[in-house]
Amino acid sequence: MDTMVVMDAEITVPGLSVVVPVFNEQDVLPLFARRLRPVLDGLGVSYEVLAVDDGSADATPAVLARMRLDWPQLRVVRLRRNAGHQNALTAGLHRARGRHVVSIDVDLQDPPEVIADMLRLAESERLDIVYGVRTDRSTDSLFKRETAGIYYRLIRRVVGAEVPHNAGDFRLLSRTAVDALTALPEPEPVYRLLVPWLGLPSGEVPYAREKRAAGRSQYPLAKMIRLALDSVTGFSAAPLRVATWLGCAGIALCLAMAAAVLGAYLWGSVVPGWTSMFVALVFLGALQLLCLGLLGEYVARVFTSVQGRPPYIVTYDSAATGTRRPAGVPS
Q1: Which of 26, 252, 291, 294 pairs with 100 at a CA distance of 20 to 30 A?
Q2: pTM of the predicted protein model
C-alpha cells in the first residue's frame, strides 16, 4: 500500500478521497451517509470521506461527530466561518490525500452510485478527469432548468466550448489534476471552469439528477448570480469589451440624435420640450453606470487578490495531527 510522509508522520494514502462541502445540512446528512457508505465499501479500494463543514449554524457539527463514531473513514474538516461552496471545496481539495478525488454535494441530487462508474472509466481509459453530466434535470424546477441552460450557453460562448454542458461540481480528479488545481493562485475559484481549463484527458459519465433528499437548497438565486459573475469575470475580459461596444453604440446614438435635432432646427420645426433630452440623459447615465459596474467587478477581483487574505480558515481537522496543515493555508 502506498504511503507518504507529511510533517514527519507516515500515513496511508487512500485510493479515493470524497470531498463533501456541507452547510446547514443536519437533515440530509444521515440519508447521504446511508447511500454513500455502501458504494464506497463495495469499490474494493481504501478511501476517506472529507466532510468540509462550511461554518454551519445548525446541528450539522454534532451530526458529523456522531457519524464518525462508527465510520472511521469519515474525516471532518471544520471552517471557522461560512466561506462559500467553492472555498469549502478548495479546503477539501487541499487536504484530500487520495490518488483519485471525487467532489459531490450532500443533497443526494447527484447519486453516489455514479462514483463507481467514474472510477472504472478513469482507470480503464487512464483519464485525469471524469465529469458527471446531468442528462435528465426533470426534478429541477422550470426556473432552475432555464437559468442553468442560460448559464452554460453563456459560459461556453464566453470561455470556450471545452466546458462540458450540464456538468456541475460532481466530478472525479486524478492526483495529477488535484495537484495542478491546488497550485493555481485563484482567489475566487470556479471549478466547473478551472477543471476544463487544465486541458487534461477527460471523459463523461451521464446520470439523471434526483430530487433533494431533505432540507432546503443552500444555493439561492443570489448565489447563482454571484457564481455567474465570478465565472465570466474570472475567465474572460469579454464584459470589458461589451462595455466598450456599448460606449461606441451610445456615442453613435447621440450623434444620430444630434443630427436629427440639427435637421429639425434647419427646417424650422423645432418644438420646445424635455422628453428627448430626458431620454438621452437617462440612457447615457445608465450606460455609464453599467460600464462602471463591469469595470468594478474586475477591480474588485484585483483588490481581493492584492489583500492576500486566506479564502477560508480551518479550525478543526479530525485527521491525525501529523497530517494537518496550517489553518487556511493551501498546500
Answers
A1: 26
A2: 0.70
Residues present in the chain in total: 331
- For residue 211, the SS3 value is coil
Q: Contact, 111 vs 209, CB < 8 A?
A: no
Kindly calculate the radius of gyration of the chain based on its CA atoms and give it in whole angstroms.
Answer: 25
The CATH number fitting domain 14-219+309-323, selected from 3.40.50.1700, 3.10.580.10, 3.90.550.10, 3.30.530.20: 3.90.550.10
Which of 77, 85, 103, 99 is CA-nearest to residue 325?
Answer: 77
Give every strand in the sheet of 202-208, ordered side by side.
Answer: 202-208, 129-136, 167-174, 100-103, 16-22, 47-53, 74-79, 314-317
CA–CA separation, 43 vs 5, rounded Å? 25
Judged on CB neighbours under 10 Å (0-12, 13-18, 19+), 138 is exposed
Q: What is the pLDDT along the chain (331 residues), one digit of tens a residue?
A: 344 433 333 457 899 999 999 999 999 999 999 999 999 999 999 999 999 999 999 999 999 999 999 999 999 999 999 988 889 999 999 999 999 999 999 999 999 999 999 999 999 999 999 999 888 766 666 666 666 666 666 666 666 656 777 777 899 999 999 999 999 887 778 888 888 888 899 999 999 888 775 656 655 556 666 666 666 666 666 666 666 666 667 667 766 776 776 676 667 665 565 556 656 676 677 677 677 767 766 776 676 666 667 778 899 898 854 344 433 444 3
Query: Is 121:205 a contact under the CB 8 Å cutoff?
Result: yes
Helical ranges in 202-268 per DSSP H: 221-235, 238-266
Identify the sign of the CA torsion 318, 319, 322, 327. negative
